[in-house]
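explain this:
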Amino acid sequence: MKRISIFFVLFCSTIIVGLQAQTVTINSIENITPTTVKVKGEIANLGSRVAEIKRRGFFIAPLNNPTAGDTIRYDTVAPKKNETYSYELYKYEDYLNPNTDYWVQAFITFKKTGQDTEYVYSIKDTFTTAAPINDYSSAGYVDNLSLTTATLKGSIDSMGNASILHDVGFVYSKTSNPTLNAPGAEYTRSTFNSNKVYPKAISSDLINLDASTMYYYRVWVINKYNENYYDTTYSTQKSFTTLHACNNVPIGLDTVYVHTDEVELTWQAGEGQTLFQVEYGFSGHTVGEGDTITVEGTSVVLSDLESNRSYTSYVRAVCPDMNSEWSNMRPFHTRAALCEKVMGLHLDNATHVTAKLEWTPGKDGDNQWEVLFATKNQSYGGTPFVVKDYPIFAPAGLSENTEYKIKVRTVCTITYDTTEIDPNTGDEIVVTKDSVARSLWSEDYEFITAKSALTDGEEINYYVSVFPNPASDVINFSMRGDIRRITKTEIYSTLGTLVYSSDTMPEQLDVSNFESGTYIIHITSLKGTQVEKIFIK
């Protein structure tokens, strides 16, 4: 009887289990990352239906998608018959998006006749994937800074919780906190090692920057979480300012040549420097007390210096908003004058269009001079006129009633001995050479041309005519009157060089040896000077 009772109890229990509804539940949701999750489920009360299970798994979808229509279905293999009636289900998945709300539902399916499938669902549960953790990147420092270039240095210290480090670089702008898509921002890409070793050093060379300008920069990193989700992060910003052209001091101030009264200075400009100020004065002068000159380029000629005198000089760059510091001091000493200075520069006579100036040579034998000539209010410029043989300068084509100035210096030849190596014997020999030297300039001499032709000029014109014009071999002079009234006849080139002079007027003059060109003839009488222009072919 007792055995029958136990059997009856077991039989009833089996019937009760078989009659209980099969259930599937979600036990836990754990190990949540930005793109993965571990879900555990449990199936209960299968009873004899364990053999009917076809599939088991989960539906997972964003919380804003309340139905299972477009969800991803996670199926697992059905349990075997000898497995326990209660077990766990779980699945890792890396196609989730970070920082997103999802619902999850466990399910089992049973085989039915035909194509029909019976589903048993758990109650829906929810979870939120982890937010991306910003990578630990730093903007580092700036190297190789110039007016228009810079090298940015940075590092990626960690990948955070991302799956893949996808792309990195620097973004920079004149505006604070630049981003890749911000107006006016520029960015670069940096190469990096794709291994998992950190930190990773990165760098980028920037070009075509604006000088003397502040830039803000940050490291940008794009992390990949799955095929559909990328996250961009930025480091804390830093800044740098490109160099100013006048932050650098010109270097290498030196002399190209030193003469008795002038010197040429040269120097090396810093990047972006085009305008300079040169200061010079007697040896030992303090900056700010000397003479200054502003020039474009990297050389200047200082004129009107005293001979055999020591000077000091400086240079600095000039920029629109500031100047550089002064360069190191460069001393120089002008040479002693080897040629004698001319004396007695004066005006012999002048008409309204011509003038005749004379001077006394510094010493006997001087026969070449250089002349600078300009109106009073103009600066001397250009190449000096060269006057040979006679100390006379006679410019023509002047303006009437106009003030002019002139200065003259002597050009002489200095003979000196020097040593050289004989190319044939290799011996040191003494060689005599000639060198061109120049005296100091004379003081400026000023004069004024006449308002009109000299008085009695018409009377002189009446008496003298010069022909033929143009001429080739000879020119003739014809005078209607007493030839004794003529006191001098002179012929000048257009450069003011005296090519002929006589105390009388010839009837005929051989000009076959004259170079082709225009000449000015001065015919002087007791009444004044008649000026004629003639062309010799």
Summary: The radius of gyration is 53 Å. Residues 1-19, 80-92, 453-462 have pLDDT under 50 and may be disordered.
